[in-house]
Design a protein that fits this description.
The protein is α+β, with helices and mostly antiparallel strands and 364 residues long. Helix content is 33%, strand content 23%. It has a domain at 77-172: T-fold, CATH 1.10.3980.10. The protein has nine helices and 17 strands. It starts with a helix and ends in a 7-residue tail after the last strand. An eight-stranded antiparallel β-sheet has the order 2-3-7-8-11-14-15-16. Helix 8 (307-320) runs antiparallel to helix 9 (322-332). The protein binds adenosine monophosphate and magnesium ion.
């Protein structure tokens, strides 16, 4: 049962892969590296998205296989579509009994709960009933009635997610509640893949899980140049990570952030949405209203050495909006960039020098 369900989803995903590649990738890495491609970077489908891992010179088939195996292992416990996953088992047991979960899922749930509290509920891991109701990106996407929204909202409440550290269990206290970790799980997975690579001694690599980017070390030197052959030291050769233009996502990067050894994660209203009567309904839901968040932001990019933290914060800040969002980032000591509906770009305190505008439609 689980097998066939999963196989169907994989087939669907693979068919959609080519189309998804451009739409889902919210952060594009500019790498100056050219020649060294033996073996080439690994691209696979996991977490319902296109994942790319490039360890350049240090890349081997065995290493890429290990990364892919870890991704698939994680998908098996985090997926909301695989009936035997920890997430599905917790959802099935809502209102009835606590469920023993993997250490990985417990860690993510604890972080999710912590940031639900810190964001005043803007990030809510129990958003499942609202995500299912809107069905954005699925065949049954629709604008629900206010009654349907009210009914789903009554089932969304992170305070009713209880976690028992000693027993390693998670429990949704009300029947009908459902977890959705779509706003945080890929961040955890990116950290895990970065660990696999670092444990293997890789000192320069790029991990891109559908726009959830992790860069290890600094950019490899361009072929034909020594590590600092262009006159800059290794420390100067930062990765140049592009942030898509949220107004014209098909055109590529509008901002560039120069970073080393960190994660860059974007949430945007262009990533998954449908339009009806000229209105765009996107996939990031404000738990307070039950409607797609209208915070004045069109995208929000977070930079942090923990991709888990960057992912949860990208979603939280998108819901909170520029002012409250940047306040949260300052409190957390995390850097980020918000793009507003009017094209203005707002950054956290230490980002000013690390960011470049590449498009006239944005104002820094
Ligand atoms: P991201 O692209 O990281 O911002 O994640 C968006 C995904 O997170 C959505 O597709 C939903 O699966 C889930 N989600 C939507 N709204 C919220 C929310 N307010 N809190 C937590 N997760 C959410
Ligand atoms: Mg997120």
């Amino acid at each position: 049962m689980m097998g066939s369900n999963y196989a169907y989803r994989k087939t669907f995903s693979l068919k959609a892969a080519a189309a998804l590649f451009l739409c889902v990738l919210s952060v594009t890495a500019f790498t100056a590296c050219s020649a060294r491609k033996a073996p080439p970077a690994r691209t696979c489908i996991s977490f319902d998205t296109v994942c790319t891992i490039n360890a350049y010179d240090a890349g081997t088939d065995a290493l890429y296989d290990a990364c892919e195996a870890r991704l698939n292992e994680l998908e098996q416990v985090f997926s909301a579509h695989i009936s035997t996953s920890d997430v599905c088992r917790i959802n099935d047991a809502a209102g009835d009994h606590p469920v023993k979960v993997s250490v990985e899922v417990f860690t993510v749930l604890k972080t999710a709960r912590g940031f639900a509290e810190k964001s005043g509920g803007a990030f809510d891991p129990t958003i499942g009933p609202l995500v299912s109701l809107w069905g954005i990106g699925t065949e049954h996407e629709k604008v629900p009635s206010e009654d349907e929204i009210a009914a789903a909202r009554a089932l969304v409440n992170w305070k009713l997610l209880s976690l028992d550290e000693e027993a390693g269990t998670a429990f949704l206290e009300k029947e009908g509640m459902a977890l959705d970790l779509g706003g945080i799980a890929k961040g955890f997975a990116a950290d895990e893949i970065a660990s696999v690579l670092k444990d293997a001694g890789v000192s320069s690599a790029l991990v891109d899980l559908g726009g959830n980017v992790y860069v290890i070390g600094s950019r490899p030197a361009e072929s034909g140049k020594s590590a600092s052959g262009d006159g800059t030291g290794v420390a100067e050769r930062k990765w140049r990570v592009g942030v898509k233009n949220p107004f014209k996502p098909e055109e590529g990067a509008a901002l560039r952030v120069d970073v080393a050894d960190t994660s860059v994660v974007t949430s945007g209203n262009y990533e998954r949405y449908f339009e009806k009567d000229g209105v765009r309904y996107h996939h990031i839901i404000n738990p307070e209203t039950g409607w797609p968040a209208e915070s004045g932001l069109v995208s929000c990019t977070i930079i942090d050495s923990s991709s888990l933290k960057a992912d949860v914060l990208s979603t939280a800040v998108f819901v909170l909006g520029k002012d409250k969002g940047l306040e949260l980032l300052e409190r957390e000591g995390v850097e980020g960039v918000c793009i507003s509906l009017d094209g203005s770009v707002s950054v956290s305190s230490n980002m000013q020098t690390q960011i470049k505008t590449l498009s006239d439609s944005l104002r820094l």
